[in-house]
Please model this.
Amino acid sequence: MNFVIPDFYPAAAEIFVAVMALVIMLATTFARSIARSLAYYLTQLTLIGAAFVTIATMDGQVSFTFSNMFISDLMGDFLKLVIYFTVATALLYGRGYLADRNIDRPEYYLLSLLMTLGMMVMVTSNHLLPLYIGLEMMSLSLYGMVAFDRDSARSTEAAMKYFVLGALASGLLLYGMSMVYGATGSLELSGIAQSIYHQAANKTVLLFGLVFLLAGIAFKLGVVPFHMWVPDVYQGAPTAVTLMVSSAPKLAAFAMAMRLLVYGLFELAEQWQSMLMFMAVLSIILGNLAAIAQSNIKRMLAYSGISHMGFVLLGLLSGVVDGDRHFALNAYSSAMFYAIAYVIMTLASFGMVLLLSRAGFEAENIDDFKGLNKRSSWFAALMMITMFSMAGIPFFIGFFAKLAVLQAVVAAGYVWLAVLAVLMSVVGAYYYLRVVKMMYFDEPVDTAPLRAPAGVRVLLSANGLAVAVLGLLPQGLMSLCAYALLASL
Amino acid sequence: MTGLPFLSLAIWIPILGGLLVLATGSDRNAPLARVLALFVAIAGFVVTLPLFTLFDVSTSAMQFAEVLPWIPRFNINYHLGVDGLSVMFILLNAFVTVIVVIAGWQVIQEKVAQYMAAFLIMSGLMNGIFAALDAVLFYTFFEASLIPLYLVIGIWGGPNRVYAAIKFFLYTLLGSLLMLVAMLYLFMEAGGSFNILDWHQLPLGMDAQTLIFWAFLAAFAVKVPMWPVHTWLPDAHVEAPTGGSVVLAAIALKLGAYGFLRFSLPIVPDAAHALAPMMIVLSLIAVIYIGFVALVQTDMKKLVAYSSIAHMGFVTLGFFMFNQVGLEGAIVQAISHGFVSAAMFLCIGVLYDRMHSRNIADYGGVVKTMPKFAAFFMLFSMANAGLPGTSGFVGEFMVVLGAVQFNFWVGFGAAITLILGAAYTLWMYKRVIFGAVANDRVAALEDIGGREFLFLSILALCVLAMGLYPFPFTEVMHASVSELLRHVAVSKL
Model:
């Protein structure tokens, strides 16, 4: 057997992040006195560096390495860039919060870096094994981060719940992978696709496997009926971690769905589309209805996130109509645009929750937003923009995300699905409006001034404005999404 | 015609100006915010004047058109243009904005900058609705205009303002989201075009037309509002501050009416014909039944709110008889209602600012203490009742004329409103203004000051001018109305 040295070049960003994670681990052990700041700044530098490496190695070509286990394409590169940005923003927003609670230990930054690495592997894998390894790497880091405030019973409980259910979901996913392997004889996504195309696979086993794969994907996206963990983990985790859980991993899960379903099992599109439809409908209904009843803003955003992920599924399920793949690019790029728009909005909204929290005070209830307009009309306006955007009101990015997805749904002929989605959006508007109502119509109960470092203020402002500006001019991001998918479809 | 993009200016001057006003910040800078707001409002009005003076009345084509690519990925354009159906609404809107800014000058003492900015931004967005010729652009303006009005009602409104604001928002959102689905369907059918003018030429089957008609109806009927989806309006009016009520009645309701003209009638003419009997019945119910409801109101604002619904019933009635005089009458009625209802709400605002009560029973004998005000209020009440010589008469008369042409009994039903309108308006006027001085607070009332005199007299001039010489108003819309009727008469099946 020959040993061929693989081409490391396409995986340069992953290798860079992995090496830096080890460097940070060592460096913080030796420089104990400044370990916390050192870990933080090195992590941010690593993310920036990874962005440069990714851009430098991006060539617009689809290339494979590590025996075809690793794929480098525009979709992967683009999603990775968004992920670096998201994680870096989440770390910046969360730093003060963690410091106030004395849990900004170097391990936290290390875990977030390892989580990033896991997501990068997920995004770029062309093979079931690295996909699974990436997923576990991300998930295990997240479990640790959720439990990071180890003296808090609630966080520990949330982490336990997350871990048990997450492990179950991983098991289901692995079981599904083994069935797909059994049916097709291949672990490589393109090999799986080939095998199904040539009718060489056992359809029954394959479909069973597909169901389990979907369960795993649905768990990571947090859609009904695999959503149980979402509200509890969002509420129980320290808010900085909630921000982490609710943002970048959704992109990774989206990438996983794309790789498995579109790259691997595209021939079964009609089958998985009907399953996705079931999950999308339930998510949009349940997410919106349950969010109304919440008084805790983290829980409310959790349920709202479930409904938003339902919308992402709406985009994914509109790709193939009666065997016609004409709509695929449009549909998948709209789903990707929606996922990115959601991440931008969720960063802004949890960023605002973090801004209201301070040492000894958790801003958790929607009531804590009361009278924000009186305390800071600027941040109230930004939060209002974010809420209206999530409700799908123009001129904000959330509207164009909904427009793109609904357009794909209508193009695929599912007008009833679009009607259902917009009716539930009206329900959704109610709870977003309630937050605006608290901020603008009510008197403040808490009059403490908002204290945050300049960096957080500036980035949060930019984040909120991005929701508005990308809404006024959505063309750039929309085309990027379409362009990123074009090469690989 | 000069090359200036007047429509863009009419949209963006108020919006950007509003943001500038917002930037003046806290109430310490309130005087600056007021002056700046007035300046922006006047500038916004001035740039709309060329739309009227340079308007070519001989053509039904879109004028002052501007086309720029906005979201090429979905073939969405920044496409503006006006014809005879829309141009007057833009002028009305810009004009009312100036009035609202003046009316809120002293009354609003809290968060002045935000108040003024909300109205300016709303004004720009509403100009956008009337000028947009791209469906997505229309929709974005249509929805975005909900936000400032929601805030205006919720922040500066009355005791039950939160309920009213949320009800207002959700009602209108529900309607418009269904319209969005219809728009996406039309986008597919039209082969990837959101251009409203393309949709006018698009052949559609009867089933599709009917569904689309219902979807548009959901959006526009709520906005107009038509019976039975009118229930948000009295709540919103009662709770809104005076300025909010004025904009709501004068402009926001017209959005629904305009939507019928721009979307429902030309895009799905066959469905419009088929469902016209239903629309006429609903309009007549609004006219007659709501007229009776108005009669028994004890709250002045609620009374005028219900009278608005009845008057808007006239507008929709005029649309669905498909004859020239009815349709023109309906548009004239819509514009006249813009002046008259604005004036009525401002008059009630004048009283409310002094007495902090809108109850008719708390008043009586106001003429003894506020003679100048009583004279103005008299004129506007007469206009609301449709007295010849005021703008209210012209539209109502034309619509009744059209209705009689269409069917005698429809005309008869519509004419009942002239009696009802006179009854509820004049009875309210009598109870509030005449009779013995009701109580000490009425006795202590001060007559209107210079600022109030200013805006009431401007409105009085408009009401009289439009009533005595309506020709310039009908002349502008004549070509477009003829073209619309010609278009609607041709089946798309």
Observations:
- Chain A touches chain B through 34 residues (CB under 8 Å).
- The radius of gyration of chain A is 22 Å.
